[in-house]
Design a protein that fits this description.
By secondary structure, the protein is α+β, with helices and mostly antiparallel strands. Helices cover 27% and strands 27% of the residues. The chain contains five helices and seven strands, in the order βαααβββαβαββ. The protein has a seven-stranded mixed β-sheet with strand order 1-2-3-4-5-7-6. Bound molecules: coenzyme A.
């Protein structure tokens, strides 16, 4: 069946959270140990601000949610509703600051079908339309191969994505958009 997309709505929240939960638990296994996966939840998951801002996409096959992800015009680089220490709702200046790629998740039953790539293309188009010239993000180890393939470069590697407990590696990555 064909993949379609639309902006996520508040009514999608439960399905999005359940998909994220499955993706975090299963898709990080080749990259992190069990302790690290548990710790990664401190800095991953649902950010309802993205849905409220109208910058979060739902990818569907029929009625089924198979992927989600989005971009942001706010300073928060990564984290969920629960990651208080990582949040900064300040609006970015498109002329001099990069927009963010945020909260990319594919249902484990639907990986390697191009869903992540599709979301990045949607985001890059929307970000350019909003006047931004560049995108940055915090990549998990599981996310880095997707971003590299799609032209994002590592700016800085971090040993721990969240401040306390088990170290979960991440990488700040960025891409300058083509000026059409
Ligand atoms: C990262 C994630 C969203 C990728 O989703 P996806 O829909 O499977 O990605 P795509 O099918 O669009 O992949 C496009 C390309 O990226 C690369 N890629 C994606 N996942 C990869 C992996 N696990 N290993 C190696 N390359 C990978 C490949 O080049 C792939 O093209 P190919 O399948 O033709 O080889 C998904 O693995 C996920 O939800 N991971 C867990 C949550 C997470 O860590 N999210 C990232 C937060 S920063």
């Amino acid at each position: 069946m064909e993949l379609t997309h639309r902006l996520a709505a508040a009514s999608d929240t439960a399905a999005i959270a359940a998909l994220m939960d499955r993706a975090i638990a299963e898709l990080q296994r080749p990259f992190l140990n069990a302790e690290q996966i548990a710790a990664s939840r401190l800095s991953m998951g649902l950010d309802t601000q993205l849905i409220a801002d109208g910058t979060y996409f739902a990818i569907l096959e029929g009625e089924e949610l198979v992927g989600c992800g989005g971009w942001s015009k706010r300073a928060t680089l990564y984290g969920g509703n629960h990651s208080a220490e990582l949040r900064d709702d300040r609006l970015l200046d498109p002329a001099r600051e990069p927009a963010r790629i945020r909260a990319m998740y594919t249902d484990p039953a639907h990986v390697r079908r191009g869903i992540g790539r599709m979301i990045l293309i949607l985001c890059e188009e929307a970000v350019a339309n909003a006047g931004f010239k560049r995108l940055e993000l915090m990549a998990t180890a599981a996310g880095e191969p997707l971003y590299s393939t799609c032209g994002y470069q590592v700016i800085e590697r971090v040993e721990r994505m969240s401040g306390e407990g088990v170290a979960v590696p991440g990488a700040v990555m960025g891409k300058t958009l083509d000026q059409a």
